[in-house]
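Re: Re: token formats

Sure, here are both.
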Amino acid sequence: MDNKNFDEIPQIKYVNEYKKVGDMLRFKSLGEKTYFDKLLLQTFVTLIIVALLLLINQVDTVLTNGISKSVKEVVSWNISLNTAVDTFKNINAIIPNTKKALGIDDNEANITFIMPVDGVITSPFGERVHPVFKTTKFHTGIDIDAEIGTPIKSATNGTVKEVGEDEYNGKFVRVISGKYEMIYAHSNKILVKEGQKVSQGDEIAEVGDTGIASGPHLHFEIQENSQPVNPLEKLNSASIQ
């Protein structure tokens, strides 16, 4: 078949249409970009930018939440610390008044005792036959023989709690020092007043034989938390004859 006859054969229409679509989708050279190519490129770039912004926002949100949580924890810790500090301040403000009301000395652990009078111990602490009643009774202190008028010294620092006289103890002085209370009984003369501060070694009374006594002596008693204890276990050994 010659070329003339070939040209006379009917051409399929869709071939031309395909050619048009191919021309439309064909990538142009950089110098031949169509409006569609530019729009497609701009859309792609925009999507990348949006994705980056979303990623940055997500990272920023996580970071912000972490910082916010840390700040809240620090603030909460500071509030708790401040509350604890305030509580301790209140306790420290209350303690001195409480100690004062209870008569507690801050140096209570350092309290020492000396022999209140120069003399001989004639009756120890504990069970004994009473020298007057001649019956077995518990002796709550120690008896120290001495001449009438012999100075009685305060065994430790403290405050005079009571000055009085009764049938059994005669003239007596009570001195308080923290959890300790000292009783000096059968005195001939009292030299201090209630509420007076005394130091260890101060003369507070004189030996006598007032009350129920077999002769001149000092009944010396130490109470710890209101319970009688053996004075010899509290006295400085250097002061005991």
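Second one below.
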Amino acid sequence: MLHRLVEPGQYRAIRYTERLAEAEAVTSVGSKGDSYDNAMAEAFNSLFKAECIRNPVMRPRGGWAGVGEVEIAVAEYVEWFNHRRLHGEIGHVPPVEYESAYWSTHTVTSYRENPVPANAGTN
């Protein structure tokens, strides 16, 4: 019995990697076993799936009727996530409330590291 050394899917992946190397391009994934480069994106995706996709309150019975409804659901989720969701990393307050509290006690006096030229914004 002959065994194929490489399955078709593996062969395509190998060829893809070779083509990337020929084009002097790099993949967007980290090294083997390294998930740190995508940790924040993976965390957000996990929250998105739990809080939007799998949440019966967000998802209509029977699912969304089309792409338009999915786009609206995603936009509503992002708005809620960015403005009203309680974030544990910032003391279980919504980002808008945290930012308002921060700027009420902090003022920007100067930007020495990256000064804005006096004539910036004029043509």
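The helical segments are 8-22, 39-53, 67-83, 95-105. The mean pLDDT is 78.
- S.
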